[in-house]
Amino acid sequence: MRDFILKRVAALLLPFIQMYGLYVILHGHVSPGGSFAGGIVVGLAFIAFTTIYGLERGRAKVPEKVTTLVESYGTLWYGIMGMVGIFKGAPFLANKIAGIDLGELGALSSGGLIGLIGLGVGIRVASTMITLFSTMMEEES
Amino acid sequence: MGFTAVDYGTMVMLLILIAASLAMYFIKDLLHAVIVYGAYSLIMALVWLQMNTPDIAITEAAAGIAMTVLMMVVISRTSRKED
């Protein structure tokens, strides 16, 4: 797996794959896709990097400390975004009732809090995929 | 109207799904089973697209690739033949 052509092609393609994953995450409420699918795409980009460039460089790119923090705070972010409704005097996870301006129908900001919630869920799914992969790679056969 | 029959293309894809899942059960070589699972996932994504749910189609394609990669890693770390 230490191939020159593979490394150059991966260096060209991986930024676009990650950008596509972030696009799918952020446009989850106005177009097909969502935070789960986009998060898996972002995670697969890091998995491809680890597979091609080796486990050490992949670990240097995303250390275990970072994945632990992202997994915890991604879930906490969901809760914080839900508490916005309660602080506004509306039910948990309230969006339009809480007084958030949804704007024009079909625009990116028309989801209100859903885009922000999806960002938290997306990076959490991505770091879960990375953790699963590196746990399996590090295990002694 | 209540029940609508699926068209012939979707019917063929559903038959391929049944054949692929039976094959995954009976194949003893785990690497071949994972390859058949990749084909299963691709056909399943097409079926979701036929049923007008592009959300689930994208999720199925991404999750299918991810699961294929993870199972490949597990096979490379353990034995390839099923006991």
Describe this entry's structure for a reader.
- The complex is a heterodimer of chains A (141) and B (83).
- Chain A is mainly alpha-helical.
- Chain A has one domain.
- In chain A, helix 2 packs across helix 3.
- The mean pLDDT of chain A is 87.
- Chain B has 83 residues and is an all-alpha fold.
- Chain B has one domain.
- The mean pLDDT of chain B is 88.
- The chains are: A mainly alpha (141), B mainly alpha (83).
- At the A-B interface, helix 2 and helix 5 of A face helix 3 of B.
SSE layout:
The complex is a heterodimer of chains A (141) and B (83).
Chain A: H1 4-26, H2 35-53, H3 55-61, H4 64-87, H5 114-138
Helix pairs in contact in A: 1-2, 2-3, 2-5, 4-5
Chain B: H1 8-26, H2 30-50, H3 54-77
Tally of DSSP helical segments of chain B: 3
Number of strands of chain B: 0
Count of strand segments of chain A: 0
Number of domains of chain A: 1
The oligomeric state of the chains shown is: heterodimer
Q: How does the helix and strand content of chain A classify structurally?
A: mainly alpha
Structural class of chain B: mainly alpha
Low-confidence stretches of chain B: none
Average pLDDT of chain B works out at 88
- How much of the sequence of chain B is in beta strands? under 5%
The succession of helices and strands of chain A, N to C, reads HHHHH
Strand content of chain A: under 5%
Largest sheet of chain B: none
The main pleated sheet of chain A reads as: none
| Distance between the ends of chain B | 50 Å
Summarize the structure.
Chain A has 141 residues and is mainly alpha-helical.
List keywords for this structure.
heterodimer; A: 141 residues; mainly alpha; B: 83 residues; flat
